[in-house]
Design brief:
- This protein is an alpha/beta fold and 550 residues long.
- 62% of the residues lie in helices and 6% in strands.
- The chain contains 23 helices and 7 strands.
- Strand 1 and strand 2 form a beta hairpin.
- The chain is globular, with a radius of gyration of 26 Å.
- The model has no long low-confidence stretch (mean pLDDT 91).
């Protein structure tokens, strides 16, 4: 049995390696989040600081410190590079996939576990965030660990889950804050309520669980509060949690159905089964306990649906909305999707004849949309009257759409021959190959339109032997700080820039070209300064210049 399990582990890890490692450190950091996180970890490592996070040499209050610690450890092995900044998320993603395999295996069987791991690994958003220097993948790991421990340790009325789950939630809170314990608490409460087991919460071991949670999470929060004299905790709880829930921040807002639409797109290519999966999972969860619906299966479906509904419901009513907020729904969806497909494959679930052909057509549609989208983004296909930013060169990857188109053809042929196993297998292979290629290749073309790394390299501002000042006027990207290894002073007007440029000290000014042209028209003396670097920035949609007094 262990050899069987190890074979599955090897298969899942190989799939995750294919999905995450190619070109992981080749393309530059994405702003804003990757730049901030990578630099905060670098500054902590450089200063030998383990408590208070800093970015651009100022206190950073947006996130707790666990991700930075992991990145610091990665830097010590791989160097302060893009690969080093992103590698902790890769490891967290791999660990999450293995844990989902084990959870689904215990819930529904071996084959469902294996398929659930493949579904999760090749779900588009999960794969993307397993590439990113952000806390999302790490938070997901500890969130899934909390649910995994609850499920395996709460069987047959056991209460041994309380302390281990509390400690896992403590690690989640160290990663991203209160969401790490609030959401699992709601999920477990709703699950017990649905199964009429709320009395299990009347247990004195909850006190020990709370103490275990504090043992894990509290020491760092206490230390950072003391070290910053309350500044960090005040900003973190007030601005980054309460205000973010109550008001849209950084213009990240959307309608109440924002996350539902997001999951439909970002669970691709497996979202072709989404409607049928939810429909039949709800039916099984509501079914009376009879021989055709074993008690364990019914409870597992209820638990996964509570897991799914809690995150979608909570973040749908939150004012600030970002796609990564509902990343924790993808493991639950992966298990439910694998369960749905495995029941159909083995004949335990009879579907209307149109559902699986419609799913194959959906996969075909994914391929067509991918090819068309890349062709439009690269300017190969023009949309009359549309105002959009183009990325010439991206169109060379439009052939990626052929992968799901080919998978749809194979899946359709399998349906015609009633070969259900071939249908499911082709879906898994197609999804893995498609998402791996999309994750590794188009980013190379998009990187041509990201300015910070190229500006720093071309201008030479990173030269450690020179004492210099860096200014940013009406343009600032956090990764400039990471690549230059220096503080970047943000200024608001030309007067500030001119006063600094007048110094004998070498000064470098990052400024959008339209702004610089306007300054030259109004201030002829600005012509005396030399432009040492130029690069188009797709976020600003113009060239960014580096101007110096040297």
């Amino acid at each position: 049995m262990w050899m069987h399990r190890l074979t599955h582990y090897a298969l899942l890890l190989a799939a995750m390696a294919l999905l995450t490692l190619p070109n992981l450190g080749v393309h530059s950091l994405w702003d804003v989040d990757e730049g901030v996180n990578a630099e905060a970890a670098r500054e902590m490592m450089e200063a030998g600081r383990w408590i208070s996070p800093h970015f651009n040499f100022e206190l950073r209050t947006a996130k707790p410190a666990l991700l930075y610690w992991l990145q610091m450890a990665s830097y010590s092995v791989f160097g302060v590079t893009e690969f080093g900044a992103r590698f902790p998320s890769v490891l967290a993603g791999m660990s999450t996939v293995l844990m989902i395999y084990e959870l689904a295996r215990r819930m529904f069987g071996v084959q469902t576990g294996l398929l659930a791991g493949i579904v999760l690994a090749s779900a588009f958003e999960f794969c993307m965030l397993s590439h990113a220097a952000t806390p999302d993948s790490t938070l997901l790991l500890f969130t899934v660990l909390t649910y995994f421990l609850f499920w395996i340790l709460s069987r047959n009325g056991s209460q041994t889950w309380i302390i281990p789950c509390s400690m896992a939630a403590g690690l989640a809170v160290l990663t991203k804050g209160p969401v790490g314990i609030v959401m699992p608490a709601v999920v477990i409460f709703l699950h017990l309520l649905w199964n009429r087991q709320l009395s299990r919460l009347l247990d004195r071991r909850l006190i020990w669980g709370f103490l275990a949670f504090l043992l894990v999470a509290a020491p760092w929060y206490i230390l950072v509060t003391v070290e910053t004299r309350g500044a960090w905790i005040k900003q973190f709880i007030g601005r980054e949690n309460v205000t973010r829930f109550m008001q849209p921040m950084e213009n990240h807002q959307g309608p109440i159905y924002y996350h539902i639409l997001g999951v439909m797109v970002l669970f691709a290519p497996w979202s072709i089964f989404l409607a049928a999966t939810i429909w039949y999972s709800v039916k099984e969860a509501r079914r009376a306990s009879v021989d055709s619906a074993p008690e364990n299966d019914r409870e597992a479906c209820r638990f996964l649906l509570c897991w799914l509904a809690t995150y979608l419901g909570f973040f749908s009513i939150a004012a600030t909305k970002l796609p990564n907020y509902v990343l924790p729904v993808y493991p639950a969806l992966a298990i439910l999707t694998a369960r749905f497909l495995e029941q159909w494959r083995t004949g335990r679930l009879t579907l209307p004849r149109w559902i699986m052909p419609a799913a194959a057509m959906g996969l075909l549609f994914v391929g067509v949309v991918t090819g068309m989208g890349l062709a439009i983004a690269g300017g190969l296909i023009a949309i009359p009257g549309a105002k959009m930013r183009l990325f010439p060169g991206v169109e060379r990857w439009l052939w990626l759409g052929l992968v799901p188109i080919g998978g749809a053809i194979i899946a359709g042929a399998a349906l015609l021959r009633t070969r259900k196993t071939l249908f499911v297998s082709s879906m898994g292979i197609c999804a893995t190959a498609f998402v791996a290629l999309v994750a590794a290749l188009p980013v190379l073309s998009f990187d041509e339109y990201k300015a910070p790394r190229k500006l720093v390299a071309e201008s030479g501002v990173r030269q450690a032997e020179h004492d210099s000042r860096l200014l940013a006027l009406q343009w600032f990207q956090p990764s400039v700080v990471f690549y230059s290894r220096r503080e970047v002073e943000r200024i608001n007007n030309w007067v500030q820039a001119a006063d600094t440029l007048a110094l004998r000290l070498p000064v470098y000014l990052f400024v959008p070209e339209p702004v610089w042209k306007q300054i030259q028209e109004q201030k002829p003396k600005a012509l005396a300064y030399r432009t040492v670097a130029r690069q188009y920035d797709f976020l600003k949609n113009c060239d960014i210049l580096v101007v110096t007094n040297q």
